[in-house]
Amino acid sequence: MNEKTPATPRPCLVCLACYEDRLASLLETASSLRLFRIAGGGATFAGECLMPGEGLPGLPGALRRAGVNRLVCGGATCRCVEMFLSAGIRMDPWIAGQVDEVLDAVVHDRVSALRAPGICPRRAAGGRGTGGHGTGRRS
């Protein structure tokens, strides 16, 4: 590619871990794993993925086999985040909102604006966070 050739964004297959018409508050309580193809400034429904029989431990592999490269979900443990990252799936945990609101945020690259209140950004990204556990209050 050179300066005169614009970069063409690759279509992205995103999974939203849903409960009814919103994101599930916790990944493991999702009743529906909805797939959407993000391309050309929009989102197109691309089907659903079932939770594998082994539950969360098998989900990264199942999503990877389905071609998913991004997961947007509610609460998830640091260990869970690490499983998805190791599988090569970008993960946006601790997100809250209605499905259409979340899709719009994914399309316009502003998912972090939907982060659940009170979540430490490092913890949401899979880090250990900087909470004051046992160290007293921080100002």
Description:
The protein has helices at residues 59-65, 78-86, 99-107, 121-124; strands at residues 12-19, 22-23, 32-39, 42-49, 70-72, 90-92. It has 139 residues and is of the alpha/beta class. Strands 1, 2, 3, 4, 5 and 6 form a 6-stranded mixed β-sheet that branches. A hairpin with a 2-residue loop joins strand 3 (32-39) and strand 4.
Notable characteristics:
alpha/beta; globular; 23% strand
Quick description:
It contains four helices and six strands, in the order E-E-E-E-H-E-H-E-H-H.
Structural class, judged by helices and strands? alpha/beta
Q: State Rg.
A: 16 Å
First-last Cα distance: 49 Å
What sort of overall outline do the alpha carbons produce when their principal axes are compared? Answer: globular
Give, in order, the helices and strands. Answer: EEEEHEHEHH
- How much of the sequence lies in strands comes to 15-25%
Average pLDDT number: 83
Uncertain parts: 123-139
Structure summary, number of beta strands: 6
Largest sheet: 6 strands, mixed
Q: Helical residue percent?
A: 10-25%
| SS summary, helix count | 4
